[in-house]
Automatic annotation (TrEMBL):
Reaction equations catalysed: N(6)-[(R)-dihydrolipoyl]-L-lysyl-[protein] + NAD(+) = N(6)-[(R)-lipoyl]-L-lysyl-[protein] + NADH + H(+)
Catalytic residues as annotated in Swiss-Prot or TrEMBL: 454 (proton acceptor)
Localization (cell): Cytoplasm
Record gene name: lpdA
UniProt EC number: 1.8.1.4
Keywords: Cytoplasm, FAD, Flavoprotein, NAD, Nucleotide-binding, Oxidoreductase, Redox-active center
Domain FAD/NAD(P)-binding: 5-337
Cofactor(s), by name: FAD
Record note on cofactor: Binds 1 FAD per subunit.
Protein name: Dihydrolipoyl dehydrogenase
NCBIfam families assigned: lipoamide_DH (TIGR01350)
Primary subcellular site in the record, as a coarse category: cytoplasm
S-S bonds: 49-54
Family: Belongs to the class-I pyridine nucleotide-disulfide oxidoreductase family.
Length: 475
């Protein structure tokens, strides 16, 4: 006999598990279905983000950054290192332990909030009566019914045409996070977030890394001035970045791969790679969802079609996160999950796409919110810009990391903040002040007038705001 619920969430990633918890908090009898599992078959909720994305990549970034600091910069602090070595197996094991802590934490939160968890793949069976019938295929197949369904099935890595992932030589983010030994030569196709983060990890521990990017510009979505600063820093570190390339034949060669491509000058080139990481974007994951059983509408990309409030074409069926329009960001999915649960409860859930922060966790970190300078120019918006370099910040000097800057863009007439862009130390944390400021329609002058602790990296934010009016105090 089917188990009945007020809300069933299909998918236990950031959008799904947060939606389930919020729905339960609002008094709904809630279930969450998720099929991720550990190598020994145990439940591993958290989706791509927790298992093969945000969390494990940050763990490896931290480990590799510690190694590089010890090898190249500890001497500046009077700390001598002898016989420095890295144990890649232990590094990967630490990453796995961090992932498990997050998996277990989500299961604990389900229990705490009385969310019923089903381990398996959820798919639509039929619509009828007052809701929907959902099949759960797992160790034991089950059927549940729901008055409301929230689809949060996430996304999958996009493969190169004719070059499927084998996660041994041709790697997605999944395989890139569990390489067992340092590859001598690593080639990345695509200079997006995943490519740059994984390239940074393996370069720091000894790989010769080449990034092949089809676009003629580096980090085209990032403010151009910030992207140029980042490109300069990455190149200095040893990442070889080639722009405007066209990737050709990829074939096995020896124990690795041969990668043919045409460079920006039209010249034929060939690289030998021990491993190839493909980072050319992600596609919505609706495989196995069986949307045709209930008439759920998908677009030409395979994403679920939703309106501004995440409603699908079906009554009481909602969708959030990577499987719908908008940026494929974990925190965007979380906000949509909360908003949908509140809308089901008759409240007014809200997500402001204009103040969603973006972060690339390289070193230097890159973070931004709002519009870029090139976007403002294209839109014909009159603006003022102010920048402040970390080399003039006392805390950055003490840290030994003065790369980068903070940049403010404000309306020329009203002084309202239109965008904030950071490349440098702890940019992922500093950007939150800008997000709060923009949510409250703050002006650059507001930030310039607020007292910031000294010495702190956040003083660079204050100084960049002062620079909008050409009155920096420390540069």
């Amino acid at each position: 006999m089917a188990k009945n619920f007020d809300v069933v969430v299909i998918g236990g990633g950031p959008g799904g598990y947060i939606a389930a918890i919020r729905a339960a908090q609002l008094g709904f009898n809630t279930a969450c279905i998720d099929e991720w599992k550990t190598r020994d078959g145990k439940p591993a909720p958290g989706g791509t983000c927790t298992n093969v994305g945000c969390i494990p990549s940050k763990a490896l970034l931290q480990s590799s950054e510690n190694y590089e600091e010890a090898g190249k910069h500890f001497g500046d602090h009077g700390i001598s290192m002898k016989d420095l070595a890295i144990d890649i197996g232990k590094m990967i094991a630490r990453k796995d332990a961090v992932v498990k802590q997050n998996n277990d934490g989500i299961l604990y939160l389900f229990k705490k909030n009385k969310v019923t968890f089903f381990h398996g793949r959820g798919s639509f069976a039929k619509a009828g009566g007052e809701g929907y019938e959902i099949q759960v295929k797992g160790a034991a197949d089950e059927t549940v019914t729901a008055r409301h369904v929230i689809v949060a099935t996430g996304s999958s890595a996009r493969a190169l045409p004719g070059v499927p992932f084998d996660e041994e030589l041709v790697l997605s983010n999944d395989g890139a996070l569990r390489i067992g030994a340092v590859p001598k030569k690593l080639v990345l196709v695509g200079s997006g977030v995943i490519g740059l983060e994984m390239g940074s990890v393996w370069r720091r521990v000894g790989s010769e890394v080449t990034v092949l990017e089809a676009l003629p510009t580096f980090l085209g979505a990032v403010d151009e001035q910030i992207a140029k600063e980042a490109h300069k820093a990455f190149t200095k570190q040893g990442l070889k970045i080639e722009l405007g390339v066209k990737v050709g034949e990829i074939k096995p060669e020896g124990k690795g791969l041969s990668v043919a491509y045409t460079n920006a000058k039209g010249e034929a080139q060939r690289l030998q790679a021990d491993r190839l990481i493909v980072s050319i974007g992600r596609v919505p994951n609706t495989k196995g969802l069986n949307p045709e059983a209930v008439g759920l509408k998908l677009d030409e990309r395979g994403a679920i079609v939703v309106d501004d409030e995440c409603r699908t074409n079906l009554p009481n069926v909602w969708a959030v996160g990577d499987v719908v329009r908008g940026p494929m960001l974990a925190h965007k999915a979380e906000e949509e999950g909360v908003a949908v649960a509140e809308r089901i409860a008759g409240q007014h859930g809200h997500v402001n796409f204009n103040t969603i922060p973006w972060v690339i966790y390289t070193s230097p970190e890159i973070a931004w919110v709002g519009r870029t300078e090139q976007q403002l120019k294209a839109d014909g918006v009159q603006y003022k810009a102010g920048t402040f370099p970390f080399m003039a910040n006392g805390r950055a000097r003490a840290l030994g990391d003065t790369t980068g800057m903070v940049k403010f863009l404000a309306d020329a007439k009203t002084d309202e903040i239109l965008g904030v862009h950071i490349v440098g130390p702890m940019a992922s944390e500093l950007i939150s002040e800008a997000v709060v400021a923009m949510e409250f329609k703050a002006s650059a002058e507001d930030i310039a007038r607020i007292c910031h602790a000294h010495p702190s990296l956040s003083e660079a934010t204050k100084e960049a705001a002062l620079a909008v009016d050409k009155r920096t105090l420390n540069f």
